[in-house]
């Protein structure tokens, strides 16, 4: 039996002109996760990652913390959906940069509504695949892990949407549950699957053992 660790990227630059890069805290979170893996003696037989900048920067931070170089397999099917394109399907006017709790809540209300309609096939966000194609990209990564790495430790670095989708597939949940899982996943959290050549099994979801010490209480983020 193998173990698959699905890691969400570190804190990105929510509200900035370029979301797709880690904040300074996001880099520290990633390095700290790598230190945790090293302290636990965890090494990876294979690594897959989405191709977004925040995925690659998170993986680089993990490797820095582990003090271990290595190759990885780029996997576009692990890339996140475009949240702005999703929101535009239900709110055509460009949103202002959120500066208050109320504006953040409004942003995520619209995102939840847009995701539900995209998943149901009711809207087609500009520049994005269909939801079925998105799911197939995630499923392809899981199939690859089962087929190629039985008995090994595998790391996937991705985003909240693909990780929530993977959990939903393993548990057989509906789209509403996938959305709730997605919107609650923390930066650099670990979701763990055990796997055989036939199936994946959920062991834990959204865990942050590397940030449990009180010194890291302010490092827990969601964006």
From TrEMBL:
Superkingdom classification of source: Bacteria
Name of the featured protein: Histidine phosphatase family protein
Gene3D superfamilies, sorted: Phosphoglycerate mutase-like
Keywords recorded for this protein, A-Z: Hydrolase
InterPro entries, A to Z: His_Pase_superF_clade-1, His_PPase_superfam, Mito_Ser/Thr_phosphatase
Record carries keyword Ribonucleoprotein: no
Organism whose genome encodes this protein: Caenimonas terrae
SMART domains per record: PGAM
């Amino acid at each position: 039996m193998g173990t698959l660790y699905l890691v969400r990227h570190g804190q990105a630059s929510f509200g900035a002109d370029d979301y797709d890069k880690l904040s300074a805290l996001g880099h520290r979170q990633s390095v700290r996760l790598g230190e945790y893996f090293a302290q636990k003696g965890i090494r990876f037989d294979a690594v897959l990652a989405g191709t977004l900048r925040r995925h690659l920067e998170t993986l680089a931070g993990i490797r820095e913390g582990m003090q271990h170089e290595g190759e990885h397999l780029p996997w576009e099917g692990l890339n996140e959906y475009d949240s702005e394109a999703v929101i535009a399907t239900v709110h055509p006017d460009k949103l202002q940069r959120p500066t208050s709790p109320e504006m953040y809540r409004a942003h995520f209300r619209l995102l939840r509504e847009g995701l539900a309609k995209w998943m149901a096939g009711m809207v087609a966000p500009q520049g994005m695949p269909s939801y079925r194609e998105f799911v197939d990209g995630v499923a392809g990564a899981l199939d690859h892990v089962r087929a190629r790495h039985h008995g090994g430790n595998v790391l996937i670095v991705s985003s909240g949407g693909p990780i929530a989708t993977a959990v939903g597939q393993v548990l057989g949940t509906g789209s509403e549950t996938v959305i709730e899982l997605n919107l609650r996943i923390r930066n650099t959290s670990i979701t763990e699957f055990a796997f055989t050549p036939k199936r994946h099994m959920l062991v834990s979801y959204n865990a942050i053992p590397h940030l449990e010490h009180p010194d890291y209480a302010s490092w827990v983020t969601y964006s």
